[in-house]
Design brief:
This protein has about 300 residues and is mainly α. It is built from 14 helices and no strands. The protein is globular.
Length: about 300
Amino acid sequence: MKTSQTRPSGSLSGLIQVLQGMAIGVANVIPGVSGGTIAVLVGVYDRLIEALADFFSRTPRWFASLFFLLRIAMGAVIGIVVFVRAVNYAFAHHELTATLFFVGLVLGSVPVLFSLSGSRRPGKAAAAAFVFTALVVIAMGIMQPEQSGRIITRLTPLDSLLLFITGLFSLATMIIPGVSAAFILLVMGYYDTLRLAVEQLNIPVLMVFFLGGVIGLLSVSKFIRFLLHRYHHVTYFAILGLVFGSVFTLWPRQGISFDAAGAAGLFSLLAGGAVAVVLGKRPGGPRDGLAASPEPEQPVRQENPAPGNDA
């Protein structure tokens, strides 16, 4: 007998999606932390990719997907605007503890991503994808700039074009687990510009940036959906490589000292990992919402009785 699962009501479901969007938004404020990884952990990654990829198609679920995207976007904006100061404060005054919490969160997502890959043994292509993507992110971490360039507060035509292109690339990478949109902004020299624009609600700067970002998101989502459907196993091992590489970019350069601050940092690391594990195992989490590629059904063999053997 089938047991029916209790599903949240419409208003509660909408609130949950806003909260999930907030978690994704907060992640995108922090260089090295991937909003895509958080989307996997909170169980919305698969639906997010499908909704973005189908944005211009006339599917029966178009309106439902649109409202889903609006709730996630609303939550992300709230998360960025409300928590950007808190995140900046945490990293300014408790850098080691804050950094190691997010390292734990990223490492805790590895078992979830591995289970979603649909295979326990990576093939040659999957292993190559893992190594390649990990090395790419590590190389980006090594080349991480110390300063994030000049801060733009008033737009010129050239600044508008460059900011549009920055939004195109940084938000397009936002939905790739293991790739940090904030880190891309740091590399491109626009992190401080966007951080200040959010803190001061500089609408012209934010509008140009997000216009490019929306176009990037809608474009890349189709390609990611194609990879997940066509090369599911290899794609997930490529994502795992990105996640492992991002740990290198996040890991505190000063190391962990054997004192009270170091102990607090290690506790924070374990707490971040525990949060990721709990999110990954909860009902409705990524293992439920983002199923691994289905195994092909085995054909049923029908044995025909040999002639002359009838009783």
